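so the lab meeting is tmrw and i was supposed to have these ready like two days ago... anyway. pasting both below. for each one the top line is the aa sequence and the line under it is the structure tokens. i havent really looked at them closely yet so no promises
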Amino acid sequence: MSEFRMPSLGADMEAGTLVEWVRKPGEAVKRGDIIAVVETQKGAIEIEVFEDGIIEEELLAVGATVPVGAPMARIRVEGEVVSAGVASPAPPPDAPPPQQASPPPSPVIAAAPSSVRVSPAARRLAKDLGVDLASVKGSGPGGTITRDDVSSAVPAPVREKGRYDFSAMRRAIAAAMARSKREIPHYYLSHTIEIGAAQEWLAAHNAARTPAERLLMGALFVKAVARAAREFPEFNGFYADNAFSASEAINVGVAIAIRGAGLAAPALHDTADLDVSALMARMRDLIARVRAGRFKSSEIADPTITVTSLGDRGVEAVWGVIYPPQVAIVGFGRITVRPWAIENGIVARPTVCITLAADHRATDGHQGALFLERIGELLADPSAL
């Protein structure tokens, strides 16, 4: 029997509030399945399990405060049986199996007037927001209406007012950034590149595609950073216990503004291995969920380097603050037409300013300059991304 514990969801998070059990005792789960929803200062985080098994017991009631590392549930892993409430190895095939105890009864889930199953957390939220449950389609097991289903059934401004304390989110962001500036010796570099080749490649790529299929320049930015991080692993990883550890995985965190207030930078997993079309699809999905305040715990827990861009807000350069325990954040500004020197003179060309904030404990300016230069080289040849 193993205990499932509340995962760490970032350096600035110490606890959350359990708002919903998505899976119930007796149900089988696989690694990556959503088991619960925890409300934090960043929004509603979908908590994923890390192993295959069967949920044996829920250790916390909805509404409980859950510190990072606290046990949330007991999971019977493959090969275990339960006898008299105690987990033991499964017997040999030719031995008679011991009597297996019945799993704890599942909590009663209230039904809407239409007899659709509704989780308690979803019912409370529907009451708070004035949502008619008969009009909501459930996406949970057996068609159960979940908290997210209720949230999706109301306009964004009402949903945000009902779900989040944005002042708390602002305080959490401020605390994390204050810690970063206090503890991390930042150094800063910038590099302006000509980006006409990338624009032309995008235009050709998107010419025969529908708006939903088209790539945005942001996908090229993220992919170029991921590819460069593979070549410069000293910028991709974590600084902890007075030492830097490079990460084998390249999980680029993408800074996303949340509607109403706040900011999050969840990870696009294995970013360097995705082709740009798959990366764009992942980004669209991630942005839509984050702006609705929904994250998966794995997306929050393991970004290895962050990309931020305020170009669509008219900003020509953005200087990021490193999110610990990461060691680097790359910024992209607005694409701006500038005079650009070429062999035969000066022409007007589209340019973008790339910035780097990096941790001097892990790298120095020489390495940072090479890293930025490589990002520029990759964007100059977008077909190779």
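ok protien two:
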Amino acid sequence: MFEGKKIGNEKDFAQESINSHVDQRKIEELLCKNFSFLEKLFSSSKDKYEISLLKNLKEFNKINFSLNKHEEIFCNAHISNYKKIFNYLVFRFKFRSSGKEKLFFKVPLYLLVEPVSACNLKCPFCFQSDKTFTTKPFMGIMNFELYKNIIDEADKIGVRAITLASRGEPTMHKNFVEMVEYLRNKKNIYEFKINTNASRLTEKLCHAILSSGVTQIVISSDHYIKEHYERLRVGAIFEKIVQNVDMLYNIRKNFYKDSITEIRISGVDNDKNLDRKKFHDFWIKRSDQVSASFPIERYNTYLNNKHPNINDPCEKLWDRMYIWHDGVVNPCDADYKSYLSYGNIKNNSISNIWNGEAINKLRKAHLAGDRKKINPCDRCGVAFD
């Protein structure tokens, strides 16, 4: 029987990991076996999340939440380093709690940094199909010095996860290899992810990804049949994509046997009739995890019908920050034209913007039940469990 396990808290649109058994007990037993070391290491901790995880391990031999496949893969990749596993689980505990419980942390736990706003594909379910977006002033690439400043501050203040991607295809940046390599020695950043359509993967880039400590590369691929794939990924050649994914998988297998990099295939079930078993069986041969979700109405968010019955506060205001190529800071990529931008990293810091008046005003409005009065929040179809 094929089953799915949600990745994220979105009610109807979360990615669902297909046929993904998670052996949580293996991780818990490792931590319990080394509990005395962890208890001593964190004996003076005042962090309530560290204390809570330790208490749960001591009293119930369990951690406080159910791991998803990505979290299990990360833990298994660091199986000999139980201190790192524990610290990582503290981060994931905070990340899950921040959005779900609307808990404010002084530092954003997760940054999505956009190297390029353009894309070489034009998928019908994506805002790249909005011709009013694929022009100035929205198109551009991130200055490499600006990028380094963002990463340096993120590492210094304790941001725990970074994804290179957002509105565009990140591998289109001429310095993308250097961007990947720059994150190599950032010790405070636990998760380093890349989202890509895989059309521009090269041997050089694959080696850079696998040697630089990238924890996850998410490859957007929506079908296992050429005709349907190319209809959905307009501009891509199915055989070339499969060849590139195979190249990444085989380079990891042959040159990086101890790699911590997870390869995940992530699909959008645009027609809502995807045979998920066949989709899984095709892609799992060349990846570690296969997931799929239904499309979110964001190919022209601003013209969507309003959703008056969806008014719960958006979790993304508490658990992440988006930074566009030009330094503009945004709450999400559904607002891809930045109606709700709350600052620019070129003239301010990550910390100041995250703690600033503009974003706090938006958080308060959502908490007060005013999401349905804010464009484009009022026409975003995403609700949360």
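from a quick look at the 2nd one: The mean pLDDT is 94. The longest strand covers residues 262-268. will dig more after coffe
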